[in-house]
Amino acid sequence: MNFLRFPELEKPGLIHGFTLRSEPVLTSADLPVILSAVGLPEKCVMAEQTHGSGVALVGRSEMGKTVPEVDALITCERNVSLVIRVADCGPVWIYCGKTGAIGLVHSGKKGTEAGVVPATLRRMRQEYGSNPKEMLALLGPCIRPPHYEVDFASEILRQLQAEQVGTVVDTRLCTAADPDRFFSYRMEKGQTGRHYAILSL
Known about the structure:
Structural class: alpha/beta
Mean pLDDT: 96
Strand order of the largest sheet: 1-2-12-7-3-5
Low-confidence stretches: none
Strand content: 25-35%
CATH topology: CNF1/YfiH-like putative cysteine hydrolases
CATH class: Alpha Beta
CATH superfamily: CNF1/YfiH-like putative cysteine hydrolases
Shape: globular
Order of helices and strands: EEHEEEEEEEHHEHEE
């Protein structure tokens, strides 16, 4: 199993990963294998991903479920795997050093316009007392100019900075620019696979 990992998220107790392009293409049916490969229980919580600003607080009772009408998941429970799928949209990993709470966000063009990232940060403040200044947020591989005329990646970064997130990391990776490693829905005209982003305590 090929995973992309980011040094900024290599923290004690924090598990993350981003599946790379593979043949055959990975599907949701492969999630138990994907999770097992990073040392997590075979069940996870997924977001339906409606390209909106919905945020769900989840825990062990949601394991094995897909939460409807949300694009972001937050938790502070251990061994609860958060999973989203992307193929051009921006995956955003969030970790609060103060509370240990985590969030995983699917933010493409529409979700970014709807403000799903700020909505997630505010929900983490509301539910856990998280302090943005003690948060780390990392924007993963997504489509970027010149391959896409809308630079939603820069808007996500602006939103994170506007919310005063202490550490904002941009991987600067473009899905459309590296077809050997990434799927791109736009460049492959919808005939492509999906990446799975994972985050767990």
